[in-house]
Amino acid sequence: MSQRLLPLLAALLLLAAPHARAETPQQSYEAALAALAKGADNDAIDRLELLADQGVVNADASGARAAAYLSRADGPSAQPGDLGRAAAALSEALLLKPDDAQAERALEAVQAEIARRHSKERESVVVRPRLGRAIVALLDEQVWAILAALSALAVSIGVVTRRLAKSSLARLTGLVAIGVGSLLTLGFGCGAYAAEEFRVSSQPAVIVVPEARLTNETGRPLPSKRGADTTTVPEGATVYVRERREGRCLVEWGSTDGWLSLSEVRILASR
Amino acid sequence: MRRAPAAWLAGAMGGCALGFAATAQADVSLSTNVSARKVEVGSQFTLQLRVSASNNEQIGAPERKLPGGITASGPSIGRQSQINIVNGQMTQSLGISATWGLVASRPGTYKLGPAGVQTSDGLKSDRAVTIEVVPEGSLPPPPLAGQPLDPFNMMRGMGLPGFPGFPGFSEPDAQPSQPQLPELPDEFKIARPLDPLAFLRVRALPRKVVVGEQVTLSVYAYAGRGSFEPGMMTEPSRDDFLAFNLMEDQHQLSGYQFELEGQRWITAKISEFALFPLKAGKLKAGEMSLSFVGRGYSKDPKGLRRTSQPIEIEVVEPPLAGRPPGYRVGDVGRYSLSAQVEPREVPAGGSVSVVVKLEGSGNLPPSLLVPERSGVHFLEPQLVEQIAPRRGEVQGFRTFTYVVELAQPGEQDLGEVTLPYWDAKGRVYGVARAALGSVKVTGTAKPAASLASASITQGPRLKGLLTPAPKLSGTRAEPVHYWPSRPGYWLLLFGLPLTAVLGFALSDLAKALRQRLSARRGSLATAQDQALAQLATAARANETMASANAAERALVIAIERATGLKARGILKQDLARVLAEAGIARELADAAAALLGRCDQLRFAGEAVDLVALATEVRETCQKFGARSPRPTPSEAT
Q1: Nearest CA in chain A to B499
Q2: Which residues does chain B have within 8 Å of residue A144's beta carbon, measured at their own beta carbons?
Q3: Which of A66, A237, B559, B584 has minimal Cβ neighbours within 10 Å of its Cβ?
Q4: Which of B459, B470, B483 sits opposite A116 (nearest CB)?
């Protein structure tokens, strides 16, 4: 009799133990929104951060996380880096859902607020990226690829027309298609290749501390260039992480490369 | 670091601090230790003075006062400097330890010291320490194997002069008695010695943990050449770990002796730490060194130095599945929370005291998750803690005293304080909770002036910038398959135009080859006709040599057109067979071979041959060859 009761007792004890219960992402999200609604910003942030840690890549979750950080940044329990984390969440939401106008407006407002708070240092959150990255960023990687494919198709049609057409006008058209198409194939192909290379070799990230000082590989601060501080990255600035090693990361900020602690940046999730 | 006697080892290991007195002074602090409060006449014991001072303090030579009946040797002096960086402020301090070896010559009670050092303010002294000296043989016998050893001379009783012998163990050249060795505990057992003389061994349990889970790191010394005195020793390396010394309160070390591969060994655990990893990864710990000083080890007074190999500990983060919100990586253990709130009734704008006690084992976290309520504000807590290792496990309590400001009148439910943690033993997450109950807030709410001023400094309100979606649109975004990441895309991109160009190029090439082939065939027919015409002319003119040449040329061309074979390259005797193998009728092949033979004869004995008949025969043969479908010659095929 007692042997039968033992497993039952053990099961009851296990149920009574203060063990955590797993939630679905939807439940966690709704619980976070409920916490946010009643002003429990920290609870909401904890839940939404856990959701992100568990691999939930979703524009709505990123947007809610941004809302939670903004709520805390506005309240008495504001913590340094809240605006940067909000900017990171908004950037992530825009990466996942590029046509989210609300997130875009909010990101601009947050960046403006960060710049306003750092006005003494005359820092700008947005810096001019490298020429190559700026050109590639003009179009989406997929658009580069489609344009290059269409150009290649034009070259092929030009070759066929040039060869098979009887009339001289058609043959001339084919010749022009070959010339222009080849140039465009080369240009758009390079764009597609560079876009892929940037995507694969670097990850966008946002600074989530009031300011981050770039260092060299050995940890020494980078020397500033004359006339401008190019080595202190302000909160909310977008950088590109190119390498990660032992808790540090090599980032590209504008035209400057330097090392930061991984705790100073938030790497944005992407699809 | 200089070699120090056994007392240094004991001090470093946190051995028994029998006499301790610290002098709280501005820049210099002193403490005095004696290895034993009760000693026998003639036995050796030590007095140690430790001095720490700020870097700019000048410290002179240590001094000590001793009563009559006590003789001293030394001191042995060790120095160390330490740099601390706190909030960007760097402070450097200097430490000195002076150890004297003492021997009492008669029984009685003696006051040792005070010991002190010369500083810039004069002589700084610690308090004196009192010891009792008893006649020789009055104290209990020395510890046996497996029994506690005097940490100030851990090899006491192992054959050193002046000490009773360790049963079963003596100097290498001494005759061992018949030992009855106690069983060696498992933690000391080894499969084979790492060194024939002496070595250190490190053990970490467990080897795979989560961040914040306790790892017990133990270091054992093994000596295979008889008794020794511990010399210079360092602490085990433990970067990336929070460490608690598990031997701090251990007054005596346990030594054992055992036999392995025909050799007698002494072993003792010399260091043990509870380590809590601070980050994930493959972390190393346990590299330490110890000098074995003794006759059997080295003639160098510093002894035989041995260093242990660091051990690798795999540290991972606890699983994401089931992780409670608010869990901080590193909170590992088993905890419980209890709380007290006083008073339970306050006026609006007043505050209550919330005392939360966190108890348990493991890495006790320095902060808790406090409830968030409108009108309830928890200030930063005051911490009181008592955390120490007990039975090899770090445990204790930490008390958090919060001042909670209550702004809104009415019955305020404070909610509960929580602490999510990972239970490493149960391999499950848990949440410790303490309900705070409710507090009655009387009066009326005060205007929130601070908030208004805060909003002015903060500029525009950010809170309303975003309205989160009420539900998740999908728990996981569909991954985008970018075209450039597919190898087929690049193949298509450059392959499509190249295929068109190459296709036409190949087509042109084939056409050109065809034209060339037909031209080649046409040229052979013409050459054959010309040869036959020359043959006819030469035969009519009865020109023997010219007829032979023309006939031979016409036949060779005819054979080449029909078979692709170049007849001039084939031996005459083989020609018929080769032609037959190439598909020519045997009669025709024989006829062609015979005609070519007659052409040769014609060149040498020509007058007797009817040239016109020969020309006719050659023409007919050529026509027979021509009746076959022409085959491309090897040169034409290429």
Answers
A1: A156
A2: 484
A3: B584
A4: B459
Residue of chain B minimizing CA distance to A76: B451
> For the structural domain made of B1-139, what CATH number should be given?
2.60.40.10
**Chain A closest CA to B374's CA: distance in Å?**
7
Q: Which one of A62, A83, A117 terminates a domain? A: A117
* Chain B touched by A89 (CB under 8 Å): no
The span from the CA of B405 to the CA of B620, in Å, is 129
The residue among A14, A15, A58, A111 with the most chain B CBs within 10 A of its CB, best to mutate, is: A58
Given CATH 2.60.40, say whether it is the number of domain B142-317.
Answer: yes
Q: Tell me phi and psi for residue B233, to 5 degrees.
A: -140, 140
pLDDT in tens, A190-241: 999 999 999 999 999 999 998 899 999 888 888 876 555 678 888 999 999 9
CB B285 within 8 A of CB B241: yes
Shared domain for A185 and A218, answered yes or no, is no
The residues pairing with B412 across neighbouring beta strands, listed in sequence order, are B439
Q: Which CATH architecture has domain B333-448?
A: Sandwich (2.60)
pLDDT tens across B588-621, in order? 899 888 888 888 888 877 666 788 888 899 999 9
The pair of structure tokens assigned to B556 is 């060779």
In terms of Cβ atoms closer than 10 Å to its own Cβ (0-12, 13-18, 19+), residue B506 is: exposed
Separation CA B535–CA B545 (nearest Å): 10
Mapped onto helix, strand or coil, the DSSP state of residue B257 is strand
Tell me what ipTM this predicted complex has: 0.74
C-alpha–C-alpha distance, residues A203 and A195, integer Å:
12
